[in-house]
Amino acid sequence: MQITLFLVMFTDEYFMREALKQAQMAFDANEVPVGAIVVWDNKIIARGYNQVEMLNDSTAHAEMIALTAAFNYTGSKYLPEAVLYVTLEPCLMCSGALYWAKVKKIVYGADDIKNGYKKTTGLNNHYHPKTEIISGILAAECAQLMKDFFLKLR
Q1: Residue 109 near residue 141, CB atoms below 8 Å
Q2: Cα→Cα distances 122→48, 115, 119, Å
Q3: What's the mean pLDDT in 22-29?
Q4: 138: which residues sit within 8 A by CB, 6+ positions away?
């Protein structure tokens, strides 16, 4: 009998690829292709993708949907051990929600020079003081999905 073991490396790139799968779901639904996941102890506990058009709700961003699912999963209003992976730099609304969620770490892919929190606030960190920020993970892939979406619209 032969036993095959699979070792999964839980890296930021691994989890960003999972967020990209959510972004692809948004793309396929004709939504702006942003995807997010929430990870707790190397386990994905929540997923979300933009559903603004589908729900006719300007607050239905990927981060907001993933956060709500994570709050429901944990039964808590705070996520101090959670890591949020999102394909695009969060906007001001989402960064505010992430501030109040008190997440441990935020990892995002592509910068959003038009609507990202850095443009709106002028700050590099608009989050809870204990929150670690990592940007640029799979940025090219995240940005390409956005470019492809907007090219498709034209």
Answers
A1: yes
A2: 27, 12, 5
A3: 98
A4: 13, 16, 17, 20, 87, 109
Q: pLDDT value at position 115?
A: 80
Mean pLDDT over 30-46 rounds to 98
Distance CA 35, CA 88 (A): 8
In whole angstroms, give the CA distance from residue 50 to residue 34. Answer: 6
Cα 5 vs. chain centroid, distance in angstroms?
30
- φ and ψ at residue 81, rounded to 5 degrees: -110, 10
The one catalytic residue in 13, 18, 63, 81 is: 63
Told to judge if 141 belongs to the known catalytic residues of this protein, a careful annotator would answer no
CB 48 within 8 A of CB 69: yes
CA distance 55 to 19: 20
Secondary structure (3-state) at 45: strand
Residue 38 pLDDT greater than 90, yes or no = yes
* Residue 152: count of CB within 10 angstroms of its CB: 9
Closest listed residue to residue 27, CA positions, set 39, 19, 15: 19
Q: Are 31 and 49 in contact (CB under 8 A)?
A: yes
